[in-house]
Amino acid sequence: MSSENLIKRVTIPDIIDKKVKSEKIAALTAYDYLMAQILDEAGMDIILVGDSLGMVFAGYSTTIPITMDEMVYHAKIVNRVVKRSLVISDMPFMSYQVSVEEALRNAGRFLKEAEVQGVKLEGGENISEIVRKLVSFGIPVMGHIGLVPQSINRFGGYKLQGKDPKIAKQLKKDAKILEEAGAFSVVLEKIPATLAAEITTSISIPTIGIGAGPHCDGQILVSQDLLGMFEKFKPRFVRRYAELGKHMRSSFKSYIEDVKTGNFPGPDESFE
Predict the structure, then answer these.
(1) Is 6 exposed, middle or buried, given 0-12, 13-18 or 19+ CB atoms closer than 10 A?
(2) All domains of the chain, ordered by start, with CATH?
(3) Residue pLDDT, tens place only, 203-214
(4) What is the rounded CA–CA span in Å between residue 86 and residue 78?
């Protein structure tokens, strides 16, 4: 038996069990083969094919323009190389909001065509019926509440959510409703750490934080933010583990200089 066949794939029950065992969950995004391969080999628990690719891959100003076909395409690429991590894909804007039937059809595409293990939807109480239906047909769902980027036009920017007591109360209610609808986890984005802690202790499914403080059951970031590749802005909640954008730019400039001066290719890069 090959070593590849011995690799155990992370499953939905594994992720839920991590909360039971108080083991933190590590998640990052990937949209291409090489990034997914590296994340998988590093031991990532969850790889999210996020609609954030609209901004860091496609160059849009928001996540809204990305289509179903584009998301399925990237999800296929990512899942094709992953051997260990759980792969979840975002459902893009207007792929699930119109009707339960359309949501079921589009979510099914991710599992059938891309073979990912689940989908992520933004919203709480307003999408509970959709979540319940997807789960009933065997489609695992990760929720997403707080700052939900697909609603950025309503928020008027990427603002902290949940400071207002009324909104905080609704977010706590949303998390419970998502749990009851069958979601296996929920992303908490850009909310106060104290609120995230309250939500985390009030539900039995894992919370995955992004700008939600240290008390969540896990954390997720956009990989290009963590690596310093996406330089348009740096959210406060991002920790830069590298500055690859600067290193890449420097390397490309060195290459240009070497080509212009005739230093590349040299004897080591040439054939007799």
Answers:
(1) exposed
(2) 3-241 (3.20.20.60), 244-272 (no CATH)
(3) 999 999 999 999
(4) 11
Summarised one tens digit per residue, pLDDT across range 14-60 is 999 999 999 999 999 999 999 999 999 999 999 999 999 999 999 99
Q: Number of C-alpha atoms within 13 angstroms, CB side, residue 36?
A: 25
Residue 104 in contact with residue 127, Cβ under 8 Å? no
C-alpha torsion angle, residues 223, 196, 90, 124 (rounded to 10): -170
Cβ neighbours of 172 (radius 10 Å): 18
Question: CA quadruple 178, 99, 105, 33: dihedral positive or negative?
Answer: negative
Looking at residue 33, its amino acid is Y
Cβ atoms of residues 15 and 87 within 8 Å: no
Query: Using an 8 Å Cβ cutoff, are 241 and 54 in contact?
Result: no
- Show the tokens assigned to 145: 């509440």
Would you list the DSSP string of 141-168?
EEEEEES-GGGHHHHTSS---S-SHHHH
Mark out the alpha helices in 90-161 (DSSP H runs).
100-109, 128-136, 152-155
* Residue numbers annotated as active site: 189
Cβ 142 vs Cβ 119: under 8 Å = yes
Placement of tokens 């009933």 in the chain = 136
What's the predicted TM-score (pTM) here? Answer: 0.95
